[in-house]
Design a protein that fits this description.
By secondary structure, this protein is an alpha+beta fold. 34% of the residues lie in helices and 32% in strands. The strands form four sheets. An eight-stranded mixed sheet has the order 6-5-14-15-16-13-17-20. A six-stranded mixed sheet has the order 8-2-1-12-19-18. A three-stranded antiparallel sheet has the order 3-7-4.
Length: 408
């Protein structure tokens, strides 16, 4: 049987193209099915939406040829400051600070706007001779055979490959069609996302300010601009989002503070309801899940995309090595190597975000004292602080080659 591609990828956001490029570079023929028109990705102007890419993630982007196209528009993360407090009262008595100068590798990561990252991926995918991009198409059926998997698209077109990878988000159709169950819960929180202009320079510092309803992240962008991820209860977020710009800023200012001078809105405003959703299995016969399709977690640590890129690196390495050994890449025993590599790290990350959100998103005086002392304790011990810095940079654990900046 003639295959349309070795590997079929469903989802053309960020993880899908990253995986497609990583696999194509090792000699696989790849088809990416994207529901969104390619002309709609990376073409909007500034809206402030961005990603905090860990250093290891930027190494992966370098290895697949995307980072040089993104780097000129990236902002280095030189400092991360974590504090606790209430709106209008400023930070608590203890601040935990991570300074990139405490490790040898350089900045802990970079902030990159979605528009630049999406455009760079799309350009790289369209230029790669081993990748076929099928846009404005959805998958309506998925059938696994003994040696192949078949996808039927909304247009009636049929694609056949050796396996399919779901990079199609928290409501993954690939996951559902494979019969993989999901578990999780609603956090009762919504993130308000926007960008602000400010009078004073941020000097590459990111801030995570924990307040009783949820955290406020202030993430530096190039120039005197920052991306804001501000978490409130569902009802409160809906009320704030419904305000005009002046009313919105009046709510944000006492939470933001005055350390960057006067602020004003830049670009659009967005909201994202928060929930945890984790697939019970990341693989089944001829099917694998990557990124939010496998594990959608709280954004409290900003690790969503970084976790997905770790999946990309691990799966690409497993499949490339399996093919070199002459194995059938879609067999469950091959795909389980990917699941074993990633599952423990993901569960640790999920557990950490769950615990952090529960510990900090409340106004319990006992917990407030405990967490303030904890921040102060970590900040007081350089070796412990450096461990957290390396973790934030994505430099710990059993790293796939692409996250080390090496070819597979």
């Amino acid at each position: 049987m003639k295959l349309d591609a070795d590997i079929l990828i469903v989802g053309g956001g960020l993880n899908g193209p990253a995986l497609g490029l990583a696999l194509a570079d090792t000699g696989f023929d790849v088809a990416i099915v994207d529901a969104i028109p390619k002309g709609a990705r990376g073409t909007d102007g500034f809206d402030g939406r961005g990603y905090a890419l860990a250093l290891a993630s930027t190494r992966l982007l370098g290895a697949i040829g995307v980072w040089p196209k993104v780097a000129p528009n990236a902002q280095a993360l030189l400092d991360i400051r974590i504090s606790d407090g209430r709106a209008g009262e400023g930070p608590g008595p203890f601040v935990l600070e991570f300074d990139h100068a405490e490790i040898d590798e350089g900045p802990m990561g970079f902030m990159v706007e979605d528009r630049f990252l999406s455009r760079a991926f799309l350009d790289a995918v369209e230029a790669h001779p081993r990748i076929t991009l099928i846009d404005e198409e959805t998958v309506v059926a998925q059938e696994v055979g003994t040696a192949t998997v078949t996808l039927t698209l909304g247009s009636g077109k049929v694609l056949t490959g050796r396996m399919v990878v779901g990079c199609d988000g928290r409501r993954s159709g690939t996951c559902e069609r494979a019969g993989i169950q999901r578990r999780g819960h609603d956090y009762g929180q919504t993130s308000l996302v926007c960008a602000v202009d400010h009078e004073l320079p941020h000097h590459g510092a990111a801030h995570q300010f924990f307040m009783p309803p949820g955290p406020l992240a202030i993430l530096p962008l190039p120039g005197n601009q920052s991306s804001i991820v501000w978490t409130e209860s569902h009802d409160e977020a809906a009320r704030i989002q419904a305000l005009d710009d002046d009313g919105y800023l009046a709510e944000l200012r006492p939470r933001f503070g005055s350390f960057l001078g006067e602020i004003s809105l830049a670009g659009k405003r967005f909201t994202y309801p928060l929930n945890l959703t984790v697939a019970e299995h990341y693989v089944t016969d001829r099917v694998a899940l990557v990124g939010d399709a496998a594990h959608g977690m709280h954004p409290i640590a900003g690790q969503g995309l970084n976790a997905g890129l770790k999946d990309v690196a691990a799966l690409a390495e497993v499949l490339a090595l399996a093919r070199r050994r002459g194995e059938d890449i879609g067999r469950i025993d091959v795909l389980e190597r990917y699941q074993q590599w990633r599952r423990w790290d993901v569960m640790q990350m999920v557990g950490t975000t769950e615990l952090t959100n529960r510990l900090f998103s409340n106004d319990n005086p006992i917990l407030r004292t405990t967490r303030d002392l904890g921040l102060g304790l970590v900040n007081a011990f350089p070796s412990l602080r450096r461990t957290f810095i390396r973790e934030a940079a994505g430099l710990t654990g059993d790293l796939p080659k692409l996250l080390q900046g090496r070819q597979i």
